[in-house]
């Protein structure tokens, strides 16, 4: 992609159509507005392009992942398999190489931010579980997971003391990790085995939502208080490698189908329904990932390449939100 792509809404060109200069001005305005917590695209009910995101330093592969740690920074595993670990500056649109992970990342590698100074991680392909200190730029080995992590392994922070996890690897295993005790507890198993594209996302309150992957279109809700699973409305198509979920606040969860498609969807929590959004710029492969970074922005790895995108979303799904 080059320049600022045109919008396509099936109507005559807008005399106020976006240009690179107008996009840059809107970007500055959006940053000013975000200071008072009123994202511009939500005011307009639109999505828009504002530029091109810097490609990651190398191609992303299985185990590639993104995690937002607040402020200006997103952290990332390359996977593929390497031990590369990077930090992306949102304001500067630049990547920085950080302290490498303790070992190479494999299938099921994953990152989760649990607040404060720490990011937690699955290595993938083993039961290794690590903690990264943001302030010290160092890694620490924590209590190993109860079993080997494979395709579909995933981590999600649900507030308080607990991180929840899928083992993946064609198993139903679902665990809870206590941050304060550094211990794992086996929870109610998933309703079916988790495979490639398995994913977890916390949407606030009592519920964690999940893709089975493997590749199916099965979508579940887990009750933290009851330790039970409930089958929800199936996704519009099957989920494969690179499938992922991201909660953007309010009523909506966003999703990649992965599996070599460019499908991108929005799920309404209140209605238990799916809506097809503007497709991603290219097909999603191994290491595809989504992360919400506040305001109107979801960032994404395509996987299998160094492509890195930002989606600017609003209320009208006919607007093309990717850049």
- Oligomeric assembly: single chain
CATH level-4 homologous superfamily:
Kelch-type beta propeller
CATH class wording? Mainly Beta
The profile of the biggest β sheet is: 4 strands, antiparallel
Question: What characteristic shape results from the CA principal axes?
Answer: globular
Proportion in helices: under 10%
pLDDT averaged residue by residue = 85
Summarize the structure in words:
- By secondary structure, the chain is mainly beta.
- It has a single domain, classed as 6 Propeller (Neuraminidase), CATH 2.120.10.80.
- It has two helices and 23 strands.
- The strands form six sheets. Strands 1-2-3-4 form a four-stranded antiparallel sheet, with no helix packed on it. A four-stranded antiparallel sheet has the order 5-6-7-8, with no helix packed on it. Strands 9-10-11-12 form a four-stranded antiparallel sheet, with no helix packed on it.
- The protein starts with 19 loop residues before the first helix and ends in an 11-residue tail after the last strand.
Task: Write the topology of this structure.
Layout: H1 20-34, H2 40-44, E1 65-68, E2 73-77, E3 85-89, E4 94-97, E5 110-113, E6 118-122, E7 129-133, E8 138-141, E9 154-157, E10 162-166, E11 174-178, E12 183-186, E13 199-202, E14 207-211, E15 219-223, E16 228-231, E17 244-247, E18 252-256, E19 264-268, E20 273-276, E21 289-292, E22 297-301, E23 308-312
Antiparallel strand pairs: 1-2, 2-3, 3-4, 5-6, 6-7, 7-8, 9-10, 10-11, 11-12, 13-14, 14-15, 15-16, 17-18, 18-19, 19-20, 21-22, 22-23
């Amino acid at each position: 992609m080059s320049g600022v792509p045109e919008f396509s809404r099936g109507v005559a060109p807008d005399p106020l159509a976006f240009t690179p200069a107008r996009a840059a001005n809107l970007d500055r305005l959006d940053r000013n507005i975000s200071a008072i917590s009123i994202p511009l695209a939500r005011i307009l009910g639109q999505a828009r392009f504002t530029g091109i995101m810097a490609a990651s330093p190398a191609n992303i592969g299985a185990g590639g992942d993104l995690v937002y740690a607040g402020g200006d920074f997103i952290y990332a595993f390359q996977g593929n398999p390497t031990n590369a670990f990077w930090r992306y500056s949102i304001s500067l649109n630049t990547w920085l190489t950080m302290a490498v992970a303790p070992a190479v990342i494999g299938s099921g590698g994953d990152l989760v931010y649990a607040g404060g100074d720490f990011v937690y991680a699955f290595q993938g392909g083993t039961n290794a579980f690590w903690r990264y200190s943001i302030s010290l730029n160092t890694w620490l080995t924590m209590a190993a997971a109860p079993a080997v992590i494979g395709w579909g392994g995933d981590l999600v922070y649900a507030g308080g003391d607990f991180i929840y996890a899928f083992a993946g690897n064609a198993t139903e295993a679902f665990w809870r990790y206590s941050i304060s005790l550094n211990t794992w507890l086996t929870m109610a198993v998933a309703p079916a085995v988790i495979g490639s594209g398995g994913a977890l996302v916390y949407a606030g309150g009592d519920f964690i939502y999940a893709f089975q992957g493997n590749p199916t279109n099965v979508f579940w809700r887990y009750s933290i208080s009851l330790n039970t699973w409930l089958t929800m409305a199936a996704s519009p198509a099957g989920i494969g490698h690179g499938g992922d979920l991201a909660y953007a606040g309010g009523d909506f969860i966003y999703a990649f189908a992965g599996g070599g498609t460019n499908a991108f969807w929005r799920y309404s929590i209140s209605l238990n329904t799916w809506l097809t959004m503007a497709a991603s710029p290219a097909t999603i492969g191994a290491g595809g990932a989504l992360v919400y970074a506040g305001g109107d922005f979801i960032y994404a790895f395509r996987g299998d390449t160094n492509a890195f995108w930002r989606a600017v979303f609003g209320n009208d799904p006919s607007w093309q939100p990717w850049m």
